[in-house]
Specification:
Layout: H1 4-8, H2 10-22, E1 41-45, E2 48-51, E3 56-59, H3 74-87, H4 97-109, E4 115-119, H5 122-137, E5 141-145, E6 168-169, E7 172-173, H6 184-188, E8 190-193, H7 198-208, E9 212-217, E10 220-221, E11 225-226, H8 229-242, E12 245-249, H9 261-266, E13 272-276, E14 286-290, H10 292-295, H11 330-344, H12 348-369, E15 375-379, E16 382-386, H13 403-415, E17 418-419, E18 426-427, H14 434-452
Parallel strand pairs: 3-17, 5-8, 5-9, 9-12, 12-13
Antiparallel strand pairs: 1-2, 2-3, 4-14, 6-7, 10-11, 13-14, 15-16, 16-18
The structure holds 4'-deoxy-4'-aminopyridoxal-5'-phosphate (PMP).
InterPro entries: Aminotrans_3 (IPR005814), PyrdxlP-dep_Trfase (IPR015424), PyrdxlP-dep_Trfase_major (IPR015421), PyrdxlP-dep_Trfase_small (IPR015422)
Family: Belongs to the class-III pyridoxal-phosphate-dependent aminotransferase family.
Organism: Rossellomorea aquimaris
C-alpha cells in the first residue's frame, strides 16, 4: 500500500529506492531525509521547485535559506556566466581582483568586519573563526550556546538538539555530543551556555574566563529564535571585560535580517563573524570577517608583528594556518556579489521583510480561526511555525510545541504544493509574490481542514 505522499510522488519513491543502494540512506546530508522518502527535485524557477513527478511547489526551504533571490535569478546567473566567459576559466587558483571587491563590500556592510578570508562553506567559516580566536587569545576552550548549530564538526557538534532529560540543568547545561564518533576531548574542551539567560551565562563565564578563548553564537538561534537585546548587549560587555572573543555565526542571519546581518540590527560589533549561504548566491561558500588585529594573525607576510596575547616572551609566531583549494572561487564570488547588489537596491529588503511579516500574520490568523495554539517566531526573512503558547526564547522552550500536529500539516502542505521540509523553518525570498503568499495561506487552511475531517 502506497503512503499517501507517495501517491503524488511515485518517481521520487522509485529514485529513492535506487539512491539507497549506492548512497547511505539515499541522502547526501542526513537532514535531507524525510519519511517515507525525500522528494527528488528536477527544476527550479523563481519561488518554485518542480519535482521528478512534475509537481510544482512554492519553496520555503530555499536551500536552507541560501536562495534569498529564489531559483535562477537572472542577475545571479548572468554574473556567474559572465565571470566564466570573461576569465575563460572557472577558477584561477591564484589571488584575483574579485576577492578584494567582495571583501570591500562586506567591510562596508558589516560593522564587525575589517578584513575577510573566504572558505567553501559555513562550516569551514566557523571552524576558521574558532581557530583564529584560540590562536589570538592563547586559551584552550570555546563556549557555545545550547541548541546553536555551527556546522557538523567535532568541536561544535555538541548540544545542538538537546534531549531535555540528558542535557543537565537549564542554567548549566551538560555537553551532549550529537553524533557517535566525537572524541571525548571535545566534550571536555567545550563549555555549553544557556541561551537568553544572561545571569547564568555570566556566572559560567566569570568562573571559566581564564580558559575560554571565544563564545560562538547564532545571534538568532536556528535563524528564528532571537537573542534578547539586553542579553546581547550584556554579553558583549561581559566578553569584552573578560577578554573572551565574541564570534557571531551569521551563516543564516547574514543578509537575511539586514543586508549587514544581525549585528546591524543589534548594534553589536562582534570580534569575528562567520558568513555563508546567501553570500554564495546559491554556490558553496563561507567567509570569516573580523577585526584587523585579529584577522592578521593568518597573514603569511606577517601583516603586523604577530604576537598572540598568549606569547609573553614576544617571540614571533607562525601565521595561523588557513588553506583551501577553492577558497575565493571567482564564479562563486561573482554570484554572491550580484546577489548582494540586488539586495542593496532600494526597496528589495523592505519588500522582502514586509512580505514575510504579511505571511506570518496571515498564518497566525488562520490558526487562530481554527483554534490551534500557534505563533510564528522569527526575525527578518526567516521564521518558524510553533504550535504552542508562551514565549519561545531557547531550544528547551521548543519542547512545548505540538510537533506531531505540525508534522501532519507539513505533509498535507507538500501534497498541496507547499515545500517545507516537515518541521523546518520558513525562509522567504525576494521573488515570492503576493499570490504565492495567498496560495500558501489557503493551503494551510485546507491542510488543517483535511486533518480535522
Ligand atoms: N552555521 C549556521 C548558523 C548554519 O545555519 C549552518 C548551516 N545550516 C552552518 C553554520 C554550516 O554551514 P554549511 O552547511 O554551509 O557548512
Amino acid at each position: 500500500k502506497l503512503n499517501p505522499l507517495s501517491r503524488h510522488t511515485k518517481n521520487s519513491a522509485a529514485l529513492f529506492e535506487k539512491a539507497k543502494k549506492v548512497i547511505p540512506g539515499g541522502v547526501t546530508a542526513n537532514i535531507k531525509y524525510m519519511a517515507p522518502h525525500p522528494i527528488m527535485m528536477e527544476k527550479g524557477h523563481g519561488s518554485r521547485l518542480i519535482d521528478v513527478d512534475a509537481n510544482e511547489y512554492i519553496d520555503y526551504l530555499l536551500c536552507y535559506g541560501a536562495l534569498i533571490l529564489g531559483h535562477g535569478h537572472s542577475r545571479v546567473y548572468e554574473a556567474a556566466m559572465n565571470q566564466m566567459k570573461k576569465a575563460g576559466t572557472t577558477i584561477f587558483g591564484t589571488p584575483h581582483r574579485l576577492e578584494t571587491v567582495l571583501a570591500e563590500k562586506l567591510i562596508s556592510l558589516f560593522p564587525g568586519i575589517e578584513m575577510v578570508r573566504y572558505t567553501n562553506s559555513g562550516l569551514e567559516a566557523t571552524l576558521l573563526a574558532i581557530r583564529t580566536a584560540a590562536a589570538y587569545t592563547g586559551k584552550p576552550k570555546i563556549a557555545k550556546f545550547e541548541g546553536h548549530y555551527h556546522g557538523g564538526y567535532d568541536q561544535v557538534l555538541l548540544s545542538v538538539n538537546p534531549e531535555i532529560d540528558m542535557a543537565g540543568d537549564e542554567t548549566e547545561p551538560d555537553v551532549v555530543p550529537e553524533s557517535p564518533g566525537i572524541p571525548d576531548y571535545y566534550r571536555k574542551n567545550t563549555v555549553i551556555l544557556p541561551f537568553n539567560d544572561i545571569d547564568a551565562t555570566e556566572t559560567i563565564l566569570r568562573n571559566r574566563a581564564h580558559e575560554i578563548s571565544a563564545i560562538i553564537m547564532e545571534p538568532v538561534q536556528g535563524g528564528f529564535i532571537p537573542a534578547d537585546e539586553i542579553f546581547m548587549t550584556k554579553l558583549r560587555e561581559i566578553t569584552e571585560e573578560l577578554g573572551i572573543l565574541l564570534i557571531f555565526d551569521e551563516v543564516k542571519t547574514g543578509f537575511r535580517l539586514t543586508v549587514g546581518g544581525a549585528q546591524n540590527l543589534y548594534h553589536i560589533k562582534p570580534d569575528l563573524t562567520a558568513l555563508g549561504k546567501v553570500l554564495g548566491g546559491g554556490f558553496p561558500v563561507g567567509a570569516v570577517g573580523g577585526k584587523k588585529e585579529i584577522m592578521e594573525i593568518s597573514a603569511p607576510d606577517g601583516g603586523r608583528d604577530i604576537l598572540t596575547a598568549g606569547a609573553e616572551n614576544g617571540s614571533k609566531k607562525d601565521p595561523l594556518f588557513h588553506s583551501g583549494t577553492y577558497n575565493g572561487h571567482p564564479t562563486v564570488l561573482a554570484s554572491g556579489l550580484a546577489t548582494i547588489e540586488v539586495l542593496e537596491e532600494e526597496g528589495t529588503m523592505e519588500a522582502l521583510l514586509a512580505d514575510t511579516a504579511l505571511l506570518r500574520s496571515g498564518l497566525e490568523d488562520i490558526y487562530k480561526c481554527h483554534d490551534i495554539p500557534m505563533q510564528t517566531v522569527g526575525k527578518g526573512s526567516i521564521f518558524n511555525i510553533i504550535l504552542a503558547e508562551g514565549s519561545i526564547r531557547n531550544y528547551r522552550d521548543m519542547a512545548k510545541a505540538n510537533s506531531t500536529l505540525r508534522s501532519k500539516i507539513d505533509y498535507e502542505l507538500l501534497k498541496l504544493g507547499i515545500y517545507t521540509k516537515p518541521l523546518n523553518r520558513y525562509s522567504m525570498s525576494a521573488v515570492h509574490s503576493r499570490e504565492d503568499i495567498e496560495r500558501t495561506l489557503d493551503a494551510h487552511d485546507k491542510a488543517i481542514k483535511i486533518i480535522r475531517k
